[in-house]
Structure formats: C-alpha cells, structure tokens
Amino acid sequence: MESLARLVVILMSTVFLSGPLGILLTSKAVWNYSREKMGLWIIRRVLVVVIALVGSYISFMLVFSQIPLGPRLFIAAAFALNIFVLKREFFRNK
Question: Which of 61, 83, 81, 73 is closest to 8 using CA atoms?
Fold first, then answer.
C-alpha cells in the first residue's frame, strides 16, 4: 500500500509541478539568457518539451480516471497550463 501511495504522490507532483516549471523555463529572462548560447538554448527547449509532454500525458490520463471532481479540476488546469507552455515556447512571436 505504501508503494501505491508513493506512486500517486509522484504522479500528482509531476502533474502539478510541470506547468509552473515550464512557465519558469519559458519566462522572458530565461528565454533571452539562453538565446545567446546555442547549447543552452537547445537544452532548455528540449527540457521544456519533455516536461510539458510528460505532464500533459499524465494529466490527460488522470482526468479520465475515477477521482473526485476537485482534483480533476486541478489536473485539467495543469493540462491547460502545459498546453499553454508549449504554445508559448513555439509560437511566442505570433
């Protein structure tokens, strides 16, 4: 039972922290700093994509599971935030 609780904590932490971490990595200060160094730019971009896709995938799975409405709404908001992060990363100038 303890390992199941740990799994739930890991999944929920991934969902809830992926959005804010993605927002931080796509902020204007980090964006401009990494723009000057090509290696850092590529690493940051890959990191944003991986974090957002993993968070979106897990949150998409959890939204359609049998959980109460409150956590489901938080998970749906986290999914929307991850989609916003991807949009902000690839379509910033449009």
Answer: 61
Of 74, 84, 73, 79, the closest CA to residue 58 belongs to 79
Please report, for residues 18, 25, 88, the alpha-carbon distance to residue 36 in angstroms, rounded to integers and kept in the order given: 25, 15, 19
DSSP readout, 28-90? HHHHHHHHTSHHHHHHHHHHHHHHHHHHHHHHHHHHTSS--HHHHHHHHHHHHHHHHHHHHHH
Q: What is the C-alpha to C-alpha distance for residues 71 and 8, in angstroms, rounded to an integer?
A: 12
Give this prediction's pTM: 0.85
Q: How does pLDDT run across 34-52, given as a tens digit for each residue?
A: 988 999 999 999 999 999 9
Q: State the angle between helix axes of 2-25 and 38-63 in degrees (0 to 180), rounded to the nearest 10.
A: 130
Q: Provide the 3-class DSSP secondary structure of residue 91.
A: coil
